[in-house]
């Protein structure tokens, strides 16, 4: 009797493990998780029936923490893991491994009615730090500048601060938004608005991306790194991924996956 | 490609053997970027190497320090000072005396104190997102005018006990710099006013709110370009450059909290007066300017007006300040801290220049209590309202900024019985007292960029022989007819 129970229990455990193996938990960056990864997942599911995804698009900090805590197999991040995050992972025996899955250009966006034709890097720094508060100071038609940024746990928030602001503080008047889509929506409605979004979000209605020092974010300028605000985006895993996570990572970096990357508006890695 | 990656790892590892960790990581990052640009490695390979470097860095002490996201900058600072001090005071030669005995002051009697002391101040200040900032400083000693701990003074819990070696919150403040040229601070803070030891002991960290404004103006008087008659050659004449820093500091300090404001039943009496039910506040209004002339000349003046309101818990009686007409014990027992009738104008000023590379400064301070008459009358010495002035005048040469720097300064300081708030004046010069005058000489030498050796000697006398020396200090004498202090300090700043 006892032997029968043991066999049954083992059988159930195997079934449970199998069910868990077909479910992929992905957490992290809103930049990746709002559009790109769900579309990759749909395509992957079509090729691998029975696979289920649990995708939580919040922010990069959450994605990296999820790998450390073991609550996700893949952590999406639009920024590199910080030393403190890597240290926390290492202390728990987790080997934080980054894989570049796409490039992105952080586009500086303004309302479509804004007459400005472009900005310099210095002007971008001045705008977002609050040194310049009126469009007329940088050749615009006048009006108090409304700045929209991401919230502080966003990878894009810290990436932009590092790439465009020499790590200086954002202007006290800046308004913090939960995601790229919210920034795009606000700038699209506000003729004095300015913000930044990943390239995948520049086609939203009512806004336009401005060239920075004469260069617009595009596949060519981001791959060639001539656009100043380019960045890699990552999947973080605990060491070399295995099983379903590896399959999905391989799919993401495959030609088919990179085609979706381009379709969504990101820049393929090859 | 694997061989290239190994080579890269080797080069980067070599970089890591060089200077501080954070700088090395940045250098390695720049090197990786260059290698990617040169197409020697791919972005992914660079990322893997970068990940390994980050992992190595995270295992070092600096890499384990985690700051919460809103903190944009954090600084740990402080100082540790070892001090030998000799302090002595002499009683009035004509003062009435009690029957002679142990601890009973005689005429012309000296009380002396020698002590070895230390102080530690450990601070943390940081800036936060959106123009906010904060400051925290822990200090040894709970005394508002001293952070010193005396060696061997805590034998009640056994020799070398730690009963007096306390850690207290010396500063805890929060501020905002979001408005141009304006700094707003609330909490227990570094004194925001420009002042001197004559009026404020430097150890006092007042509690309340402060608003500061500062703006600089630059003038270029004369100068310009001169074009020759042929219209071709141009010479530029150097203008007379003048920089003017204008500032204003306003403060509202909670001097003493009344508790409760609304008592049960009716209000009681102390000293035949209703027990106060309002907080005592101290207000300060300061405007100032610093003129920076060419060739390192400057002049600064910063008048400030102080006033008080309310009585708090402890100011329900008038300031007396001691008397030479009663015994020492009776004189000490008089009120020494009352804040009645204090409307004080202080004008600190400083003029600086350089002789060669040697900085020289002439400095001074002047204060007058516009309500001196009323304060004297309340102290039962009507007609002594003229004792309302205080002043300081001195000169210094040198500076203490780097190793082998030295500094010398000397000044004369005079403060009359009804001029100042005795609870604020410096505790070393003159033992927290007013109605004193004398000379102070100080010398300093920087043994290293962070270690400074200082000597201070001060000798003071009672200013008006018919009055006490208001205030409560370490020397149990009032009037303090003569006073001497010597301090040798070894100070480490970090």
Oligomer: heterodimer
Radius of gyration of chain A: 21 Å
Main beta sheet strand tally, sense and closure of chain B: 18 strands, antiparallel
Mean pLDDT across all residues of chain A, rounded?
88
Strand content of chain B: 35-45%
Query: How many DSSP-defined strands of chain B?
Result: 22
Q: What series of H and E elements makes up the topology of chain A?
A: HEHHEHEHEHEHEHEEHEHH
> Most extensive interface, residues per chain?
A-B, 26 and 25 residues
Q: What are the secondary-structure elements of chain B, in order, as H or E?
A: HHHEEEEEEEEEEEEEEEHEEHEEEEE
Total strands of chain A: the figure is: 9
Number of helices of chain A: 11
Query: What summary fits the major beta sheet of chain A?
Result: 9 strands, mixed
C-alpha end-to-end distance of chain B? 48 Å
Distance between the termini of chain A: 59 Å
Structural class of chain A: alpha/beta
Overview of the structural elements:
The complex is a heterodimer of chains A (270) and B (494). Chain A has helices at residues 2-21, 30-33, 36-47, 60-69, 83-91, 121-129, 155-164, 180-189, 219-223, 243-253, 255-264; strands at 23-28, 52-57, 74-77, 96-111, 146-150, 175-177, 193-198, 207-209, 230-238. In chain A, strands 1, 2, 3, 4, 5, 6, 7, 8 and 9 form a nine-stranded mixed beta sheet that branches. With 270 residues, chain A is an alpha/beta fold. Chain B has 494 residues and is mainly β. Chain B is 12% helix and 43% strand. In chain B, the strands form three sheets. Chain B has an 18-stranded antiparallel beta sheet that branches. In chain B, strands 8-9 form a two-stranded antiparallel sheet. In chain B, strands 11-12 form a two-stranded antiparallel sheet. In chain B, helix 1 (2-16) runs antiparallel to helix 2, helix 1 (2-16) packs parallel to helix 3 and helix 2 (21-37) runs antiparallel to helix 3. Chain B starts with a helix and ends with a strand. Chain A binds chain B through residues 61, 80-84, 86-88, 90, 95-100, 152-153, 169-170, 172, 174, 225, 232, 234, 269, and chain B through 25, 37, 43-44, 47-48, 50-51, 54-55, 57-59, 63-66, 69-70, 72, 127, 129-131, 178.
């Amino acid at each position: 009797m006892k032997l029968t129970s043991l066999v049954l229990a083992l059988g159930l455990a195997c079934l449970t493990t199998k069910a868990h193996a077909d479910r992929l938990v992905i957490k992290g960056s809103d930049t990746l998780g709002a559009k790109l990864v769900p579309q990759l997942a749909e395509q992957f599911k079509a090729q691998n029936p029975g696979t289920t995804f649990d995708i939580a698009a919040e922010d990069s900090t959450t994605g990296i923490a999820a790998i450390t805590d073991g609550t996700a197999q893949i952590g999406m991040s639009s920024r590199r893991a910080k030393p403190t995050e890597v240290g926390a992972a290492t202390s728990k025996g987790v080997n934080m491994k980054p894989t570049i899955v796409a490039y992105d250009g952080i586009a500086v966006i303004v309302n479509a009615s804004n007459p400005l034709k472009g900005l310099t890097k210095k002007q971008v720094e001045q705008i977002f730090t609050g040194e310049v508060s009126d469009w007329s100071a940088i050749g615009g038609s006048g009006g108090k500048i409304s700045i929209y940024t991401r919230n502080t746990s966003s990878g894009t928030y810290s990436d932009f601060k590092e790439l465009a602001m020499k790590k200086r503080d954002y202007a006290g008047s800046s308004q913090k938004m939960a995601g790229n889509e919210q920034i795009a929506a606000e700038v699209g409605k506000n003729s004095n608005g300015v913000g930044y979004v990943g390239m995948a979000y520049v086609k939203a209605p009512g806004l336009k991306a401005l060239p920075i020092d004469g260069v617009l974010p595009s596949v060519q300028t981001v791959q060639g790194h001539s656009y100043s605000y380019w960045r890699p985006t990552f999947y973080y895993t605990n060491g070399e991924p295995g099983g379903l996570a590896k399959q999905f990572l391989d799919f993401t970096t495959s030609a088919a996956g990179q085609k979706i990357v381009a379709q969504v508006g990101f820049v393929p890695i090859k | 490609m694997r061989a290239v990656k190994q080579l890269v790892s080797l080069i980067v590892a070599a970089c890591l053997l060089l200077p501080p960790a954070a700088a090395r990581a940045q250098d390695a990052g720049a090197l990786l970027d260059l290698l990617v640009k040169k197409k020697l490695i791919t972005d992914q390979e660079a990322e893997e190497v970068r990940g390994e470097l980050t992992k190595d860095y995270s295992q070092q002490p600096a890499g384990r320090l985690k700051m919460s996201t809103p903190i944009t900058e954090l600084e740990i600072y402080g100082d540790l000072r070892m001090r030998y001090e000799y302090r002595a005071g002499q009683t009035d030669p004509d003062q009435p005396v009690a029957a002679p005995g142990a601890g009973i002051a005689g005429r012309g009697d000296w009380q002396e104190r020698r002590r070895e002391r230390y102080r530690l101040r450990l601070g943390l200040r940081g800036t936060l997102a959106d123009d906010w900032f904060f400051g925290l400083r822990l200090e040894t000693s709970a005394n508002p005018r001293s952070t010193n701990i005396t060696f061997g003074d805590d034998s009640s819990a056994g020799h070398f006990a730690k009963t007096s070696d306390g850690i207290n919150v010396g500063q805890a403040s929060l501020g905002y710099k979001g408005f141009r040229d304006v700094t707003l601070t609330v909490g227990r803070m570094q004194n925001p006013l420009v002042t001197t030891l004559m009026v404020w002991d430097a150890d006092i960290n007042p509690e309340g709110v402060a608003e500061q404004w500062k703006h600089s103006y630059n003038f270029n008087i004369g100068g310009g370009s001169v074009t020759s008659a042929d219209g071709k050659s141009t010479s530029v004449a150097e203008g007379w450059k003048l920089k003017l820093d204008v500032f204003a500091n306003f403060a509202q300090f909670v001097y003493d909290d009344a508790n409760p404001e609304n008592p049960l039943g009716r209000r009681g009496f102390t000293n035949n007066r209703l027990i106060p039910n309002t907080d005592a506040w101290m207000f300060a209004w300061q405007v100032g300017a610093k003129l920076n002339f060419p060739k390192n000349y400057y002049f600064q003046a910063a008048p400030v007006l102080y006033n008080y309101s309310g009585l708090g818990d402890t100011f329900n009686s008038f300031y007396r300040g001691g008397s030479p007409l009663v015994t020492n014990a009776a004189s000490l027992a008089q009120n020494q801290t009352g804040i009645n009738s204090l409307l004080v104008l202080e004008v600190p000023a400083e003029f600086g220049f350089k002789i060669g590379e040697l900085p020289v400064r002439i400095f001074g301070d002047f204060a007058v209590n516009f309500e001196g008459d009323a304060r004297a009358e309340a102290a039962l010495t009507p007609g002594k309202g003229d004792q309302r002035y205080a002043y300081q005048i001195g000169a210094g040469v040198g500076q203490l900024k780097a190793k082998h720097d030295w500094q010398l300064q000397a000044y004369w300081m005079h403060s009359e019985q009804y001029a100042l708030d005795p609870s604020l004046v410096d505790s070393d010069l003159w033992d927290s007292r007013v109605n004193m005058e004398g000379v102070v000489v100080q010398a300093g030498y920087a043994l290293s960029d962070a270690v400074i050796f200082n000597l201070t000697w001060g000798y003071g006398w009672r200013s008006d022989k018919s009055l006490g020396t208001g205030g409560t200090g370490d020397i149990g004498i009032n009037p303090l007819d003569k006073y001497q202090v010597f301090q040798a300090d070894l100070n480490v700043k970090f």
